[in-house]
């Protein structure tokens, strides 16, 4: 089972800190944070009036981190012509711990998109991954994202892309099974996020 809950900085800092320090999370550029710094970072996201943090669980185990934000106020202000209902999104999938589980990152992406649309009420999801992150470009395309253009953001040249509810519904990841059909029951919990796209996601 795959679920999302609000981030608890004190409770979740240790696991997120380990994810940040892993080389596969390089595009997040958070490897210099210590545990206290990670807790403070998460607390800042949670306290911000235009951002939220979510911890994703697979079979009850922490497996991914989602950040959502208002692109009219955070990061993309003055860069992206935000429309009402636009929601920015970052996704970090945990580094691999065991045998790869085919389809896990696709399932996580699908669940994150449904969370943005169905739980948070977004009309359109906006992402801005590093242009060098070719793996997430493939995953975003599978979720229905359409590239608008490249933009300069703090610390990176980014690919600005958007996905409407209809775009996602028509995409390979928008199927009713949410990309989860290929997972073996219980397999995700033991391996966590270890398909080839792990931690390339969303930045």
TrEMBL record:
Any one biological process term the GO annotation gives: siderophore biosynthetic process
Domain of life: Bacteria
Protein name: Lysine N-acyltransferase MbtK
Region of interest called Disordered, as start-end residue ranges on this chain: 184-203
Domain (Acyltransferase MbtK/IucB-like conserved): residue spans on this chain: 5-52
Role: Acyltransferase required for the direct transfer of medium- to long-chain fatty acyl moieties from a carrier protein (MbtL) on to the epsilon-amino group of lysine residue in the mycobactin core.
Any Pfam family: Acetyltransf_8
Pathway(s): Siderophore biosynthesis; mycobactin biosynthesis
A GO molecular function held by the record: N-acyltransferase activity
């Amino acid at each position: 089972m795959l679920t999302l809950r609000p981030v608890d900085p004190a409770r979740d800092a240790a696991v997120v800190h380990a994810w940040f320090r892993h080389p596969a999370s390089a595009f997040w550029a958070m490897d210099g944070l210590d545990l206290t710094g990670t807790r403070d970072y998460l607390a800042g996201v949670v306290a911000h009036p235009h951002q939220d943090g979510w911890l994703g669980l697979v079979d009850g185990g922490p497996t991914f981190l989602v950040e959502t934000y208002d692109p009219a106020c955070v990061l993309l202000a003055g860069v992206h012509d935000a429309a009402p209902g636009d929601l920015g999104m970052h996704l970090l999938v945990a580094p691999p711990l065991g045998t790869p589980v085919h389809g896990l990152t696709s399932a996580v992406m699908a669940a994150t998109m449904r969370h943005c649309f169905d739980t948070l009420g977004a009309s359109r999801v906006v992402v801005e991954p590093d242009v060098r992150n070719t793996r997430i470009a493939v995953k975003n395309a599978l979720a229905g994202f359409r590239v608008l253009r490249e933009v300069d953001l703090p610390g990176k040249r980014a690919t600005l892309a958007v996905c409407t509810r209809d775009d996602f519904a028509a995409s390979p990841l928008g199927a009713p099974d949410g990309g989860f059909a290929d997972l073996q029951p219980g397999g995700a919990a033991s391996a966590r996020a270890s398909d080839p796209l792990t931690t390339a996601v969303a930045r």
